[in-house]
Amino acid sequence: MDNGTTDDPLHPIGELARRTGLPVRTIRFYSDAGIVVPTSRGTNGYRLYGAEAVARLELVRTLRELGLDLPTIRTVLDREAALPEVAAAHAKAIDVQIRTLRLRRAVLTAVARRGAEAEELELMHRLAKLSEEERRRMTAEFLDAAFEGLHAHPAFGAVIRSMTPALPDDPSTEQIEAWVELAELFQDADFRTSVNGMARNLASDRAPDGDGLALPRILAEAVRSLVEPALAAGVDPASAEGTAIGSTLAGHYARTVGRADGPELRSRLADHLAAMNDPRRDRYLRLLAVVNGWPEPDGMAPVLEWAARSVR
Fold first, then answer.
1. What pLDDT digit, counting tens, does each position of 181-228 carry?
2. How many domains, in total, are found in the chain?
3. How many angstroms separate the CA atoms of 128 and 125, rounded?
4. Which pTM was predicted?
5. Beta strands 11-12 and 40-41: pairing type?
6. Domain span at residue 160?
7. What angle do CA 69, 72, 73 make, to 5 degrees?
8. I want to staple 111 with a disulfide (CB 3.0 to 4.6 A). Which of 10, 11, 116, 184 is the partner?
9. Rounded CA gap, 145 and 143, in Å?
């Protein structure tokens, strides 16, 4: 029997199993497959392995635990492929698996929370697994319809960009759930009509000097500063104090659009504010913030309702 050198003793398969922690049958399978070959055989025909076999088996065990298949492992061991390249490719494959599992978990979590039926489950799963290009196309179709006839308007380019969701490459469960709900809103024809109506109201109220849109300025400068404190303080919009705030809002609006204050203008402003008070609008903006990783916006519904009543 060839016992090798004292610096590199040979090990029978049982000893190799003890050193590597692999079952004898597994080592024999790897040996038959040519993944680890015996250095020599004893006089009794038993296989004997050197130190290199121990190292190869330990690498094989590690790569198998990481999910690599045997053909890939053999290309690494035979130096037909570099280990770093194989590891990088496998890591990418695992990333895909992780995203797939996260998507499935998000859909199932949403189904459990919403009590969805089979038909809704199928829709949610289809929406969740859309490609980036398909998501972009669906978003564009919704925004094109919502802002139909207004794309040339100088103020709406930024508005449309600010309403565009961008699901990241590695989204969280919450972002996937938010995207699915957004996609469902995209398909709500009544919501598209509502958004288009809001946009047309804004477009019709251009200031005489062409400097921006009237209602966003009113909401930003007047509603936030006047209505929110009054609402927080419990002021009744129909009270003297509430009516005075409504008059201030109407004055801002009248100056911005270059029109005289009066019943017709106040009715128009109140109608605009009421039209903007669509709960789906607030929901859209909250979902958009989740998908894009933005801070959650404050809901405008109570403010808009209070402002419309005070103006009337």
1. 999 999 999 999 999 988 888 777 765 555 445 556 566 677 888 999
2. 2
3. 5
4. 0.64
5. unpaired
6. 130-311
7. 85
8. 116
9. 5
